[in-house]
Amino acid sequence: MRIKGNHPYADAFPMASEEELGELAESIAAVGLIHPIVLTPQGEVLDGRNRLAACEKAGVEPAFETRDGDDDDYKEFVIGANTTGRRESMTVQIAAASTALVLGHDRRSNGRWKRGSIGITESGNSDSGWRNRMNEAGLILDELGPAHLREVRDGAASLNSKYEQARRQKDEREQAEAREVEAERQAEQREQRAQEFFDNDAAAREWLDSKPEGAFANMRAAFSAIQEEREEIRQAEQARREAEEAERRETEERINRHARYVEVFVTNFGTGLDMATNPERNEILQTCEPRIRDRFLEIENTYLKGN
């Protein structure tokens, strides 16, 4: 029979180590090929990649048999063949990663393996530790994708490290989704409060009704717009009141200042009258600055003497 290559499900599992292939080749050379190579009707190897390589190494003509089944049958067969009596080089973590690759996303639902999927993988591995490894591999598949499982299969990473990475990513995603849900809930509450505001404020309702249809995407947008407009009006009114208050204070200060001038004038008016008869008049005037002396004489001649 002509072999066309390996079936993808078979390639999901790693090949045996060189040491294991050597031991298998020695066994086949000594006793022959006990289990034939299993092919699909199309000539793809479902089981026996290592036996086929060992036959070539030992120079033994391999025997073949054909398995005609559907996709689920091939999955169950390949997984069972590779996880029952695992060779030493295939650890539980590698076996779980490879099994998850074969099962794929179509066997996952709501973060769990679909009913019966784990049963397929439990050929000789029914313990809870295997279930735990499969659950970890499932989360890696969901969150990180098949490429990360292939890293585990190929020994480039451990299942534990990839699981922790997937768990952190899931936690971050769920937290982001929770924040989004909370943001939507708060938006709905704000929308409801905005609606209640317009229902209970007649002036606001009149303002809203005056706007063209479709002016606002929702009631929250309308509420923000009227609040902004009212804030502008409030600030303008406050600025007007502050300007009026500043003008009032300036007028009051000006009046008080002139009132003090009048008080000083009245208080010192007698002094100006007495200068006419003050025996020291000339000495006092000479002591004053010329402009003050000239201004006093002008006032005295014009107002005090009646000239």
Report what the structure shows.
With 307 residues, this protein is mostly helical. Helices cover 68% and strands 5% of the residues. The chain contains 13 helices and six strands. The strands form two sheets. The protein has a four-stranded mixed β-sheet with strand order 1-3-2-4. Strands 5-6 form a two-stranded antiparallel ribbon. A hairpin with a 2-residue loop joins strand 5 and strand 6 (112-113). Helix 5 crosses helix 7 (128-143), helix 5 runs antiparallel to helix 8 (146-153) and helix 7 (128-143) packs across helix 9. The longest helix is centred in the C-terminal third of the chain and has 56 residues, at 219-274. The N and C termini lie far apart (147 Å). The model is unreliable at 121-125 (pLDDT under 50).
Q: Which stretches of 5+ consecutive residues score pLDDT under 50?
A: 121-125
SSE ordering: EHHEEHEHHEEHHHHHHHH
- Radius of gyration, whole Å: 50 Å
Strand content: 5-15%
How many helix segments? Answer: 13
Mean of pLDDT:
92
In order across it, which strands form the biggest sheet? Answer: 1-3-2-4
- What's the count of strands? 6
Task: Please tell me what the overall shape is.
Answer: rod-shaped
Secondary-structure content class: mainly alpha
In terms of quaternary structure, the protein is single chain
End-to-end CA span? 147 Å
Helix content: 55-70%
Largest sheet: 4 strands, mixed
Keywords:
68% helix, mainly alpha, rod-shaped, 13 helices
